Amino acid sequence: MSATIDPIPEKDASSEEGQSPNVRPEPVATHEDADSSCSDQSRTEVPLPIETIAEDGTAPFLAPEAAALLPLFENYEYVPPPPPPRRKPDFADCVLFVLIGIGAFFCSGLLMLAALHFHLFGVSNLNQANGEIHYRIGSQVVWYVLTLAFSALVFPLAWRRSFFQGIQWRAGAAGVRIWRLIGAAVACFGAAILDELLMPGPDNAPIDETFRMPGAVWPLFAFGVTLAPLIEEIAFRGLLLPSLCTAWDWIREQVTHTPPPALAEDGFPRWSVAAMVFASVVVSAPFALMHAPQTAYSIGPFLLLVCVSLVLCWVRLGIRSLAASVMVHATYNLLLFSMMALGTGGFRHLDKM
Predict the structure, then answer these.
(1) Is residue 198 predicted with pLDDT exceeding 80?
(2) What is the value of pTM for the model shown?
(3) Which has the higher per-residue pLDDT, 324 or 54?
(4) Cα Dmax for the chain
(5) CA separation, residue 176 to residues 170, 179, 229, 327 (Å)
């Protein structure tokens, strides 16, 4: 038998014509190629699957299998919000000033007891000291001076600025408006004259009796235009007034859930109009009550002092200068003393008061 050889099948010409001449035939994969392919895949970074954004527009989160590959807590880093602006002065500063005043008061009392021990001005007991103008005014002068000195030492430790900077003294801002401030004092003086005509105070009020004490007029005059307006303005419009403004705005922010406004360029708070009106009215009541014993609690002088206090608050908040309100206060007192001097012949006839 003769062996037959199967002919080799010829390639289909039609299939060769269908292929593009630029297409190369795929090489046959070997075991070495498979090993290199696996190593390349192991070196290639596989993108982490990310879940799609939720319908409510929240940010995408990593899928659980992807989050397991990340370090622990990397997606849960907490960034605390910035602290609220530090608004000073506040009620804590008012309490501190009261404590300083109490300490200064006891120091003044100790000095008066030492003066009594040495029979200064011929006075040896407290009853005599109460009727002696040097003790009566001198003890108050020492009290105010010590309060001011202790405040100048203590408050910079809490504020990181000087005491007068912290209460917005700003003498320069008051100096450039000096004529306007004098005009405000003259307006208050005119209101005092009108009040005396419409609702006069009682005769022989405690303040009148104090002026009739021997040698009392000139010490009272000096005290009334210097230390008295200075300490009163520091207490009522340097500390209490801004504290009440800040408290009003803070309560409003808590109720309405609004952030506090940024501090002004000088580092002090920006207050709303409602806060300034509220604080001015609240401050004026105790300011008038503090002077009420001097006028036997008569209604006319009380209402006058409320109006004067409102003017002083308006000056303090409008110019943002405590020196401005001190200047108006001192000038107003100076005009009152001047009218008293004219009416009594230079304080020689105090019975005409």
Answers:
(1) yes
(2) 0.76
(3) 324
(4) 169
(5) 11, 8, 20, 12
